[in-house]
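Example pasted here:
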Amino acid sequence: MRKLLNEELTRLTNDEFKKSDKTPLVIVLDNVRSLNNIGSVFRSADAYLIEKIYLCGITAQPPHKDIRKTALGATETIEWQYVEDTLELVHNLNSEGYLTCAIEQAENSKSLHNFIPAKNQKVAIILGNEVKGVQQEVVNACKETIELEQYGTKHSLNISVCAGIVMYDLFHKLYSSS
């Protein structure tokens, strides 16, 4: 089996990406402190045609060399916006018809495997700080809490790894339910 060359991969140009239909999914980063995590989330968002990323609280914003290092140009394709108050943003997304989902270990959370969004549902996932997670008041404001089941000793994933898993899963669920 031969590995494909970069020239053989079907890739959109930045302009084609910006004009393409997007996955009805937005990502909210709630006080994410690692610039590398932020860049990695941008890169995964590009891979799955994510509608938009919201950067909230202490979450750094492009342009920054450490974000750029892991984003590999995705800050030029993904629409993003800084919003200081995550809670206010979640309330706004709720009123705009998004199904807001905190990605968090919580009472009565739903397993990602069992979470099936409705056809044509706009979804917003909220990912939290590397140490403290999603703020409790933000979890309370979300319509759902989704948990990635884990079986080892750590009970946590790196935020960019978690984001990538959730984006991949929801990309396929949102398109297969259409």
